[in-house]
Amino acid sequence: MDRVITAKGAIGPIRRETLQHSVVAELRAMILAGELPPGSRVPEMQLCEQLGVSRTPLREALRILASENLVELRPHRGAVVTPIDPNEIAAIFEVMEALESLAASLACRKGTEAEFAELDAQHAQLVAHFQAGNRLDYSTVNRRIHAGIVAMARNPALETTHAGFAARILRARSLANYDADRWQESLTEHEGFMKALRLRDAAAAGALLAEHSRRTAEAVLRALRGEASRAPA
């Protein structure tokens, strides 16, 4: 009898956690895709209806997203999508440029053959997603490639710092709708630093990854400032 009660009791929390995880994932995707724009109020009632959930799991999800700095919980106003400050993003990209250059240089010296093979496999996936026009999967693999290069550097301080900054610019990058020319340029830049990494040319890999980061920053900031200029006063 006790076992049955315990087993049944365990089902409830698992289901609630699964529901909460699903709601968090849905809201996060909506924010990253710009469906819930920066600075906008989160329409709780509308989202409850759209997602088919009550306000309790929705608010639990919003608390989690607040811990990720994706939303702000404001008294008497509810949840608001955290605004993006282009100047802050620009400052972070300046640091990321240096971090990625260092990571590439160290990866050339410390990366294993198995890690380079995995990097090549991920790059092949990146090319396939580009050819299929699949931006969402392209972006996912792109993040894995950059994180993989940092991991190959074998420097915990670098990895922690890079991960923190990468999370802070993720939404800004997702809001920048690159045109086809920039997307092609980005892939070409990937081809360049991947070639240098395969040759274990630390100087070239570091320089090329830094240039890629700088050009990405320019595209993101151009898009963000364009959005700001079009926003109503």
Structural commentary:
This protein is mainly alpha-helical. Helix content is 79%, strand content 3%. It contains nine helices and two strands; from the N terminus they run αααββαααααα. Strand 1 and strand 2 form a beta hairpin. Helix 1 packs across helix 3 (55-67), helix 4 packs across helix 7 and helix 6 (135-152) runs antiparallel to helix 7.
Topology (elements, then pairings):
Blueprint (H helix, E strand, L loop, with lengths): L1 H31 L11 H8 L3 H13 L3 E4 L3 E4 L4 H25 L2 H20 L2 H18 L3 H20 L4 H19 L3 H29 L3
Antiparallel strand pairs: 1-2
Helix pairs in contact: 1-3, 4-6, 4-7, 4-9, 5-6, 5-8, 6-7, 8-9
Outline, from the CA principal axes? elongated
* Topology, number of strands: 2
Classification by helices and strands: mainly alpha
Mean pLDDT, nearest integer?
87
Largest sheet: 2 strands, antiparallel
- What is the beta-strand fraction? under 5%
Describe the strand arrangement of the main beta sheet, using strand numbers: 1-2
Helical segment count: 9
Run of helices and strands: HHHEEHHHHHH
Short summary:
With 233 residues, the chain is mainly alpha-helical. The protein has nine helices and two strands, in the order αααββαααααα. It has helices at 2-32, 44-51, 55-67, 86-110, 113-132, 135-152, 156-175, 180-198, 202-230, and strands at 71-74, 78-81.
Keywords:
79% helix; 233 residues; 9 helices; two-stranded antiparallel ribbon; mainly alpha; disordered N terminus; 2 strands
